[in-house]
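Hey, I was hoping to borrow your eyes for a little while. There's a protein on my desk that I can't quite get my head around. The fold is given in discrete form, as structure tokens running alongside the sequence. I'd be grateful if you could look everything over and explain what you see. Here's the protein in full, and shout if anything looks odd to you:
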Amino acid sequence: MTTQTKGRQSIAFAQPVSILSGASMVGQKEGEGPLGDLFDCICQDPMFGTESWEQAESTMQKETAQLALGKAGLTKEQIRMIFAGDLLAQSIASSYGLVDLEIPVYGLYGACSTMGEALSLAAMAVAGGYGEYILALTSSHFGSAEKEFRFPLGYGNQRPLSATWTVTGSGACVLGRKGGKACITGLTTGKIIDYGLKDSMNMGACMAPAACDTILRHLQDFCRQPEDYDRIITGDLGKIGQRILFDLLEEKGCDIRQQHMDCGLEIFDAEEQDTHAGGSGCGCAATVFASYVLPKVETGEWKRVLFIPTGALLSKVSFNEGQTVPGIAQAVVVEQERKA
């Protein structure tokens, strides 16, 4: 058996895993942002025709999954398993959203890093021969996230400038053994990093140390430099998290300023849309990847990117008990499919 582990935390696939499709669905605010023309579907109704924020998010997941299957030319019966998750307690957006698909599911929780986790596990499953076609999927919703972690929307609380805006959106990718124009060639699994921060209104600061740790470990494991990538793409650090990431990396002698892009800074126009530090949520990295990053790799405009969704691992219980907010970052190497 060919050894595919690399360094301390990474995997280099002996055979690249194809990304057969990417699909994205977002809400009105996201559709009005800079990437609005790229999303597959923009829903003007924040409730998505349902009676609650949670049901709305489940609807997004189900419809995005179906979009991804349709773009890949597959039926649900051809999908071996799903790796999916969301921000809500017990991952209820995924549970209720995917039940009607009747596909085996592994439920995930990596906070805003969930798309990186889902892609990593799906790629490993395909590479290991455990499924010909596997779906990676996640979502978030501004209304359900505020209700879960912060304040009821009717409360009308003021948001500090360090706060990010949870993206209403869902992103999905179908992975397979061959047939895509882009592929996953490697990954680096992140460690939980805790700098002792407790500010739930400053997620960028909580997640930046984890992004730094995973990036450095990835470059070391693969013996690469930042310039080996067209883009190094974090999930949702926002303005503050980006600055902290640059400072932390600079202390280690690493500069990614020329290659760096943050999905949270791309999805909204901070000045025009009043989103403060930027976007966040599981749906942030997932929708930007499916609608913006993946097509650029497929066309060859970007040959190789490092996609690193970041997550803040808190719950309403841990926050109310005064616990810190650890972070995690999951890195996935995405390249243009190589011709045989």
Notes: The chain has a mean pLDDT of 92. Residues 39 and 60 are 13 Å apart (CA to CA).
